[in-house]
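Key idea: predict the complex, not the pieces.
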Amino acid sequence: DGGITQSPKYLFRKEGQNVTLSCEQNLNHDAMYWYRQDPGQGLRLIYYSQIVNDFQKGDIAEGYSVSREKKESFPLTVTSAQKNPTAFYLCAAGFTGSQPQHFGDGTRLSIL
Amino acid sequence: SQQGEEDPQALSIQEGENATMNCSYKTSINNLQWYRQNSGRGLVHLILIRSNEREKHSGRLRVTLDTSKKSSSLLITASRAADTASYFCATDTGTASKLTFGTGTRLQVTL
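Result:
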């Protein structure tokens, strides 16, 4: 079944801890994206990658890091520098060239 | 930064009625897309309209785009309870295929 798989569905972070959110796709899309969604709000772009081994900061990259070692995978690390990490995190993938994006079902991150 | 602002923020209608949502944006675009989000889930792409198009249809969905006013509307005809969701517009300015999302309209369709 093709799609975007995000894990875990729920994640809890302790003070001073880094946590990593997983995003895997089997759609063969070149571009992948991470968004943050706060309650009742739209999506804000954290990082994006158009090709393996390359990624760029989005609008709210501070406190986050990513890697793109494989086309299928784009993990997001929420570092201890991110002081307000509680949010719903969405991963997406798409072809480059102004095409629609396909989304995973999100990871909800909370602070312990 | 939020490029799109949607209006209304929330809309409640009865099954069978039409629902109209509006989106305004600030800069020139390559295309505008509409997405749907059920509670606690990811977004699902509904329709894409390019900057040189004025109207597009897909099933019960009708989207219009007015680039002179920098606005778009999404019409859902003959609404069903299953249409209950949040709807977002997203603009593509052609920079690295990035999308900028609006704040969304929460649609409630009651029986």
